[in-house]
């Protein structure tokens, strides 16, 4: 179940760390925004650098006038990796405004527009109980060059159940295809860190070749593993992955002999419980040809169990097997051949 959900999540860019989503939340009714301004309309930034752009907010927050706020900008054009930008925690100044920087990375190449404000301090994932208060503010044109490209290589390529593994991560200049030539500070996270990283900490360094290798315990294979590029207040790029798992199938008929035409349940398990995936009962025709002989069977959540139904078509020893096709991050697999004698 976990692997299916995580694989679906990773079909989209890794932006969870940037957008604090609160299910069924509403904007804070006590936060009122009068105006938002940026001190620039355009900015250029290269490589792993960030460029500060000052954002100033006029408004009120009645419960606590000293509460910080964060301004949200959303992509409206361009092709950079980032879809959202958050300002740093903006303090309340003596003149009654909130003001501070938005740290713009090269991965934000394109056009962004101010779309809302949220009370701080910033915390991603489920940290906020409210949605941003909407505000249609100014736009910022960003020219991002030499953007970082992140790739990963898992060893072994297919990770057996119960085994540890290694991931070699690489950070290179997408424009040149080469490393930046310096040690790059990165976050190597598992599970919650991939969705909820913010600010400093949890950092590692690549070599000057842009590579960093980490060994992972066996249980890390059940979750998303990621490399994030740290920023303030959130990461400014990243890559997440779920490792590839083998399709390990076991199956046993409830009876080893039955009269021709009798329905015989075949019970089995797929390791890792990839729910919503399917299994198929196959029968051997002739010497080498396997054909599917039953409707698809569902793999049950958490347990990985399934039930298929055989029906001996003739008298004699009939070979069967269960086929599990490639699904999400699981490779295809077959059960061992088993026999039901038609009588």
Annotation keywords:
single chain, 343 residues, mainly beta, seven-stranded mixed β-sheet, six-stranded mixed β-sheet, 2 helices, elongated, disordered N terminus
Helix content: under 10%
The radius of gyration over CA amounts to 27 Å
Helical segment count? 2
Broad shape: elongated
Total number of β-strand segments? 26
Which runs of at least 5 residues are low in confidence (pLDDT < 50)? 1-13, 15-23
- What's the rounded overall pLDDT mean? 91
The succession of helices and strands, N to C, reads HEEEEEEEEEEEEHEEEEEEEEEEEEEE
Largest sheet: 7 strands, mixed
Structural class computed from helices and strand pairing: mainly beta
Taken as a percent bin, the fraction of beta residues is 35-45%
N-to-C terminal Cα separation, in Å?
Answer: 40 Å
Task: Give the SSE map.
Elements: H1 2-9, E1 31-38, E2 42-46, E3 50-61, E4 69-77, E5 84-86, E6 98-105, E7 110-119, E8 133-134, E9 139-145, E10 148-155, E11 165-173, E12 185-190, H2 192-196, E13 203-205, E14 211-216, E15 225-228, E16 238-241, E17 249-253, E18 257-258, E19 264-270, E20 278-285, E21 289-292, E22 297-298, E23 305-310, E24 316-324, E25 333-334, E26 338-342
Parallel strand pairs: 2-9, 18-26
Antiparallel strand pairs: 1-3, 3-6, 4-5, 4-7, 7-8, 7-9, 10-11, 11-14, 12-13, 12-15, 15-16, 17-19, 19-23, 20-21, 20-22, 20-24, 24-25, 24-26
């Amino acid at each position: 179940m976990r692997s299916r959900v995580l694989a679906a999540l990773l079909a989209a860019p890794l932006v969870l760390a940037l957008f604090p989503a609160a299910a069924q939340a509403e904007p804070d009714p006590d936060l009122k925004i009068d105006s938002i301004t940026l001190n620039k309309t355009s900015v250029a930034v290269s490589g792993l650098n960030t460029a500060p752009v000052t954002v100033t907010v006029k408004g009120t927050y009645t419960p606590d006038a000293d509460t910080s706020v964060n301004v949200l900008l959303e992509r409206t054009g361009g092709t950079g990796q980032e879809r959202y930008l958050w300002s740093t925690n903006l303090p309340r100044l003596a003149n009654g405004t909130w003001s501070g920087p938005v740290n713009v990375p090269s991965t934000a190449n394109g056009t962004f527009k101010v779309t809302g404000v949220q009370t701080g301090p910033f915390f991603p994932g489920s940290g906020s109980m409210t949605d941003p208060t909407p505000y249609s503010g100014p736009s910022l044109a960003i020219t991002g060059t030499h953007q970082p490209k992140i790739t990963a290589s898992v060893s072994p390529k297919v990770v057996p159940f119960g085994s540890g593994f290694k991931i070699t991560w690489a950070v290179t200049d997408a424009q040149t295809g080469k490393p930046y030539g310096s040690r790059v500070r990165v976050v190597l996270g598992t599970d919650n860190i991939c969705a909820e990283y913010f600010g400093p900490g949890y950092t590692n360094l690549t070599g000057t070749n842009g590579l960093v290798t980490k060994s992972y315990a066996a249980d890390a294979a059940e979750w998303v593993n990621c490399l994030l590029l740290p920023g303030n207040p959130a990461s400014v790029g990243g890559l997440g992955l779920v490792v590839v798992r083998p399709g390990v199938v076991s199956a046993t008929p409830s009876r080893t002999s039955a009269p021709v035409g009798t329905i015989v349940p075949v019970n089995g398990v797929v390791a890792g419980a990839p729910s919503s995936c399917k299994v198929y009962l196959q029968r051997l025709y002739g010497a080498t040809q396997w054909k599917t002989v039953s409707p698809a069977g569902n793999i049950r959540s958490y347990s990985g169990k399934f039930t298929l139904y055989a029906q001996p078509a003739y008298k004699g020893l009939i070979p069967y097997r269960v086929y599990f096709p490639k699904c999400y991050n699981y490779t295809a697999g077959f059960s061992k051949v088993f026999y039901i004698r038609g009588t």
